[in-house]
Design brief:
Structural class: alpha/beta
CATH architecture: 3-Layer(aba) Sandwich
Strand content: 5-15%
Radius of gyration: 16 Å
Largest sheet: 6 strands, parallel
CATH topology: Rossmann fold
Oligomer: single chain
Low-confidence stretches: none
Shape: globular
Number of helices: 7
Mean pLDDT: 95
CATH superfamily: Flavin prenyltransferase-like
CATH class: Alpha Beta
Distance between the termini: 36 Å
Order of helices and strands: EHEHHEEHHEHEH
Number of strands: 6
Length: 205
């Protein structure tokens, strides 16, 4: 049985939109949450492409990197794992977690999860959540979606995965890109009953 005190796994795949990962870390760390983070191999290339920065490979330096990107130097607990370390704690069902979020989630990752393939730690950790009956939330960021994409997403939904597409709303009157991103982040964390994102909700004063 898991409790709110158990860590939440955050997986960062190689889909475009790493700002989603940065913002969710910002709010979780500021809320003093424990996070186990694993970034896929391709996410390193996306950082280079989107921000022209290199994400450190060393885990200690990577933790500082993510904290710097999120603007939260202290607070919470963040432990980073190498993408190839399939022997890490989060690769085992006996390591208790609150569940896992893959944000952003590439269609390649969706396909592998839908068909039980685990070629790296991110995929293995997600597969563990499924086999243990824990909550797995994915935030796919792709457009347009092919029939193959839709079928793979359906397989995951039928297996109990919560699919929260990176589609913002406008009823909260966003003023910045971060406001649009935060809507998706808030709806993602809602799946775990975590309310730590300042969001003006529908018909809420």
């Amino acid at each position: 049985m898991t409790t709110p005190n158990h860590p939440l796994i955050v997986g960062v795949s190689g889909a475009s939109g790493l700002i989603y990962a940065v913002r969710i870390l910002k709010y979780l760390l500021a809320a003093d949450r424990a996070i186990e983070l694993v970034a896929s191999k391709s996410s390193y290339m996306v950082w280079q492409s989107e921000q022209n920065v290199k994400m450190p490979v060393d885990c200690d330096r990577q933790e500082l990197f993510w904290r710097e990107q999120a603007g939260v130097e202290t607070g919470g607990k963040l432990r980073c794992h190498p993408w190839q370390d399939v022997g890490a704690n989060i690769a085992s069902g006996s390591f208790r977690t609150r569940g896992m979020i893959v944000i952003p989630c590439s269609m390649s990752t969706v396909a592998k999860l839908a068909h039980g393939l685990s070629s790296d730690l991110l995929e293995r950790a997600a597969d563990v959540q499924l086999k243990e009956g824990r909550k797995l939330v994915i935030v796919p960021r792709e457009t347009p979606l092919s029939l193959i994409h839709l079928r793979n997403l359906t397989i995951l939904a039928e297996a109990g995965v919560r699919v929260v597409p990176a589609i913002p709303a406008w009823y909260h009157q966003p003023q910045t890109i971060e406001d649009l991103v935060d809507f998706v982040v808030a709806r993602t964390l809602d799946q775990f009953g975590i309310d730590c994102v300042p969001l003006r909700r529908w018909k809420e004063d």
